[in-house]
Amino acid sequence: MALQSLNSLHAFLPTHVILGSSSFGRGLVHFRVQRRMASTKMSHHQQPITRRTANFKPTIWSYDSIQSLSSEFAGKKYADKVKELKEDVRVMLVKESDPLHQMELIETLQRLGLSYHFDHEIKSILGTIYDKRRSNINMPKQESLYVVALEFGLLRQHGYDISQEIFSSFKDEKGNFGDDCKGILALYEAAYYCVEGESILFDAINFTTDYLKEYIKHSKDDEYLSTLANHALELPLHWRMLRLEARWFIDVYEKHHQDMNPVLLEFAKLDFNVVQATHQEDLKHASTYVNNMMHACLVIVRVPLY
Question: Which PANTHER family match (predicted)?
Answer without folding.
Answer: OS04G0344100 PROTEIN-RELATED, TERPENE SYNTHASE 10
